[in-house]
Specification:
This protein is α/β, with parallel strands linked by helices and about 180 residues long. It is about 25% helix and about 20% strand.
Length: about 180
Amino acid sequence: MVDWHKISLEKIARELETPKGYIRVSAPLEHDNIVNGDGLRAVLWTQGCPNHCPGCQNPETWDYEAGILRKIDDIKKELASFRGQAGLTFCGGEPFVQPEACKEIADFVRKELGWNVWSFSGFTYEIIMEHGGNALKFLKSLDALIDGPFILSQRDLSLRFRGSKNQRLLHLKYGTGEILSAE
């Protein structure tokens, strides 16, 4: 029998290695996005994903060696130039395989730009909590998490900000990661 819990813990431990001060992204930063969270949002597309969900809309983001290596300071400068944004959403790929870089960017947009921060993850909230470490630190910097792998047989295009019925939109208490509400 396959132990999906154990496999998920092993996958989240496979962090993508980048030089300090860098993040690997799969695409240019977006702004004025309205489909990846509430309000007008900037979106950072991370590179690297160990989950490889069948039917994934972004399979080009799976490869840990692909994408573009960018300085985090350059990302911050570009984000600061965007006007009228309510927040930043981390998409992927899998943001939780680059948790330190994502947390640094999340902290910047919250403190310097006053934005809220959301992230998608193919890992469940429970796996992130159990894994702990830098992934948990990143989780605690979020206002919302859309969690769980995309499951093609549960695809539902009527869901708000989610692709399959197993995924949850979790509103979190900043600083603790405590779930305030779930959709």
